[in-house]
């Protein structure tokens, strides 16, 4: 299946300037598996999104078709075929 | 002609300043704008200048980058320079210290991080290994967090495998076997914020430095208390007499001259401003027996603190002294603190400064 990942402009330098990345995954996947697939080609991007324990960084939000995954099953949230995964920084800092 | 590089890490980016005389400075455009820069190391060994930065995004976390061309380009190792091994079950929050080892150990760079951890690199700071001897120390569960976080902020390598570290709040620890085993070394350092007699560990040491002439002599600025050890950290005695306050964050030692140190006193932990709102460094030329107030060129109205790494010395002759404030002002002295000129003003709050005479 194909999943499209949308990235914030602040992370585009980790993907060669692209703010949208299409991934081909074998069958239904979780958010964690999508991020693993992304990490294989973009390890720096992965470190921006997840820390070394594998946890989503506190001020990074991930949406699957518009639903924030922390309100679902976190990284275990299922990503259906054709879904759009959006990574975005939360409102923080000053 | 000699060029001096001054790196200024702030809460919202890095500025690099250069000078031929350490009085007139040329300031770069900001690097990593809107990214916190809590640590800088300048490594001038091996005939090159490498600027190492610990940077941290509020959103996207911490990382370490380096530049070998004075900031024109920056390199970040793909896998990350500092990352806890999986079995540690921890993630780096902030890199507080990047400290090149001595000239006879080129390539060795030490790092101190939050959560409290010490790291060693053997490739000039591109990859660090966690110092497991300290991470696995049975005291670690009892080390607390200072107001700024739970950090190893001082890493002071010495001769023959000796390294002293200081942390908030655990105090000073020493290894003599290259990091395999560590012992607390806080005897004589106060801890008024803990009940009972001074504990073996738990002190909130803000910064330590090693004497240039006697590697067994150390200096510490504590959370109330200024101390010296003449026995490699085994015991500490107060050297606060003659200072306007025993509170502050900075402790600097002259890299050329034994017995010469600088501190930047603040009124108290409950009043973190320079005494009387007048910024001054205080220098001792006799290992803390007597102190001299130095304020020529420093502002007479200054209510911002100087943080523990927002002051440094270079290795010039005479030694240069640099201080930056949380108000974003940076001052440089080309004469060991006798007089200062302003390098920059109105920057974001200054977290760290590091200076080096370029090879």
TrEMBL record, chain A:
Name assigned to this protein: Molybdopterin synthase subunit MoaD
Q: Name one Pfam family in it.
A: ThiS
Q: Which Gene3D superfamilies match?
A: 3.10.20.30
Please name the SUPFAM superfamilies in this protein's record. Answer: MoaD/ThiS
NCBIfam families named among the record's database cross-references: SAMP1
> Any coiled-coil ranges, and where?
none
Q: In which organism is this protein found?
A: Modestobacter roseus
PANTHER family, per this entry? SULFUR CARRIER PROTEIN CYSO (PTHR38031:SF1), SULFUR CARRIER PROTEIN SLR0821-RELATED (PTHR38031)
UniProtKB/TrEMBL annotation, chain B:
Question: Which GO BP terms sit in this record?
Answer: xyloglucan metabolic process
Highest taxon of the lineage: Bacteria
Protein name per its UniProtKB record: BNR/Asp-box repeat protein
The root-end lineage is:
Bacteria, Bacillati, Actinomycetota, Actinomycetes, Geodermatophilales
InterPro entries assigned: WD40/YVTN_repeat-like_dom_sf, Xyloglucanase_GH74
Q: Which SUPFAM superfamilies match?
A: Oligoxyloglucan reducing end-specific cellobiohydrolase
């Amino acid at each position: 299946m194909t999943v499209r990942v949308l990235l914030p402009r602040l992370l585009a330098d980790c993907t060669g300037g692209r703010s949208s990345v299409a991934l081909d995954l074998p069958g239904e996947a979780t958010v964690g598996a999508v991020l693993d697939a992304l990490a294989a080609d973009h390890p720096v991007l992965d470190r921006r999104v997840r820390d070394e324990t594998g946890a989503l960084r506190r001020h990074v939000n991930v949406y699957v078709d518009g639903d924030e995954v922390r309100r679902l099953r976190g990284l275990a949230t299922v990503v259906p075929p054709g879904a759009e995964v959006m990574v975005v920084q939360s409102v923080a800092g000053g | 002609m000699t060029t001096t590089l001054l790196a200024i890490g702030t809460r919202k980016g890095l500025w690099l300043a250069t000078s031929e005389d350490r009085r007139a400075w040329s300031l770069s455009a900001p690097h990593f704008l809107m990214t916190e820069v809590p640590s800088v190391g300048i490594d001038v060994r091996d005939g090159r200048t490498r600027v190492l930065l610990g940077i941290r995004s509020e959103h996207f976390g911490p990382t370490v980058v380096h530049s070998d061309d004075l900031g024109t380009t920056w390199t970040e190792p793909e896998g990350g320079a500092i990352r806890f091994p999986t079995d540690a079950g921890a993630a780096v929050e902030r890199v507080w210290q990047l400290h090149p080892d001595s000239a006879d150990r080129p390539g060795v760079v030490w790092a101190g991080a939050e959560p409290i951890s010490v790291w060693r690199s053997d490739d000039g700071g591109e990859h660090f290994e966690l110092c497991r001897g300290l991470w696995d120390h049975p005291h670690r569960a009892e080390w607390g967090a200072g107001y700024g976080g739970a950090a190893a902020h001082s890493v002071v390598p010495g001769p023959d495998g000796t390294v002293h570290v200081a942390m908030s709040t655990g105090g000073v620890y020493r290894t003599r076997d290259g990091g395999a085993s560590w012992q607390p070394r806080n005897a004589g350092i106060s801890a008024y914020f803990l009940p009972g007699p001074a504990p073996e560990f738990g002190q909130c040491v803000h910064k330590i430095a090693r004497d240039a002439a006697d590697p067994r002599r150390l200096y510490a600025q504590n959370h109330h208390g200024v101390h010296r050890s003449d026995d490699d950290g085994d015991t500490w005695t107060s050297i606060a007499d003659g200072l306007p306050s025993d509170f502050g964050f900075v402790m600097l030692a002259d890299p050329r001259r034994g017995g010469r140190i600088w501190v930047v006193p603040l009124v108290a932990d409950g009043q973190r401003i320079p005494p009387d709102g007048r910024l001054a460094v205080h220098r001792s030329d006799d290992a803390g027996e007597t102190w001299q107030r130095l304020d020529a060129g420093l502002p007479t109205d200054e209510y911002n603190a100087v943080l523990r790494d927002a002051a440094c010395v270079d290795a010039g002759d005479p030694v240069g002294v640099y201080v930056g404030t949380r108000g974003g002002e940076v001052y440089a002295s080309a004469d060991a603190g006798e007089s200062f000129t302003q390098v920059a003003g109105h920057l974001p709050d200054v977290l760290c400064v590091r200076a080096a005479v370029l090879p």
